[in-house]
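Z., the sequence and structure:
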Amino acid sequence: MDFLTGLRDGFELLWAILTGEPKLTMYFVIFFVGSLVWAFVANYLRQQKLRKSGILEVDKMTGKVFEEYLQGLLKRRGYKVSLTSVTGDYGADLVLSNTDKKIVVQAKRYTKKVGLKAVQEIVSAKNHYNADECWVITNNYFTEPAVKLATSNKVILIDRDRLMKWMLEVNKGA
C-alpha cells in the first residue's frame, strides 16, 4: 500500500465515522472509551507510585528536614553520612563516604526546577572538602543550563525520578 492509498483509506474511514456508519461509529466509541479507561488506569498507577515512594511527603518538608531525610535514606543505601553545619557549609549539606570515595551533596527541596547556583555551589564544595564526587539531589528537576554545567563539571544530578526510585528501593527492602 502506498502513501496515497493509505491516506485515501484514512479519509474514507473518517468520513464513514462522521456520516454515522453504525459499525464504524461503534468501533470509534469503543476505542474512545478504551482510551479513557487506559488514561484513568495509568493515572491511578502513577498516583499509587507517588504515594508508595513517599515523595509527596518530601514535597512538604522544609529544606532542613529534607537534608535529615536524605541522611537516613543514604545511610540505608550503604553510605556513612554526616550533615554539615547550617552556616559555613561551603556549599555542601551532606558528606558521604564509603570504602573508596568521599562525596559531597547539595540538597534542594524545591517547588521549581533547580538552577545553576546549586551546581556552582557543589563544585566549590568538592574542592573545599577534597571530595572525589559531588551530587545535587532534588525532589524536582534541573534547568537545562544546570544540566549543561553539571555535565562539564562532572556533577551527578539526582532528580525527582531517580530520588523516587531510590526511595522505592529502600522502602521495598525495609
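Residues 3-53 form one domain. The first helix runs from residue 3 to 18.

Let me know what you think.
H.
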